[in-house]
Design a protein that fits this description.
It holds the Pfam family DUF2462. The protein is an all-alpha fold and 117 residues long. It has helices spanning 41-70, 78-116. The chain has a domain at 41-116. The protein is elongated.
């Protein structure tokens, strides 16, 4: 073969490819920790979710304790017992407040009716 001589191939010519974006592959860990810790906004969201779920759990625990105390059975866990008693008292105060408002309203309406007569 002579130097600088190229034979034409019978295969179709390859077209130039447009530039492609490289796909970002997740980091592979072989040793040590199994996951990367979150950073920035994700950490704040995770903390907020955890705080929300803890608050909901505390509220539910207090409501269950109040129901257990209201049933009249003996209850041995003192911290839950105290929380249940406080919740029962709080519910009674709210009920009395609603009833007193309705009584005041009915009295006021009867007075207005009497004035109209």
């Amino acid at each position: 073969m002579a130097q600088g001589f190229k034979m034409k191939s019978k295969a179709p010519a390859k077209k130039a490819k447009a530039s492609q974006k490289q796909k970002q592959k997740p980091k592979q860990l072989s040793k040590g920790r199994k996951a990367f810790s979150a950073k920035g906004r994700k950490v704040a969201l995770a903390k907020q979710d955890a705080e929300t779920s803890k608050a909901i759990n505390r509220k539910n625990e207090v409501e269950v304790a109040a129901r257990a105390m209201g049933s009249g059975d003996r209850f041995f866990l003192s911290d839950i017992k105290v929380a249940g008693k406080k919740e029962i008292g709080k519910n009674k105060r709210q009920l009395r407040k609603k009833e007193s408002k309705s009584i005041k309203m009915s009295e006021r309406l009867t007075q207005q009716l009497n004035k109209l007569k």
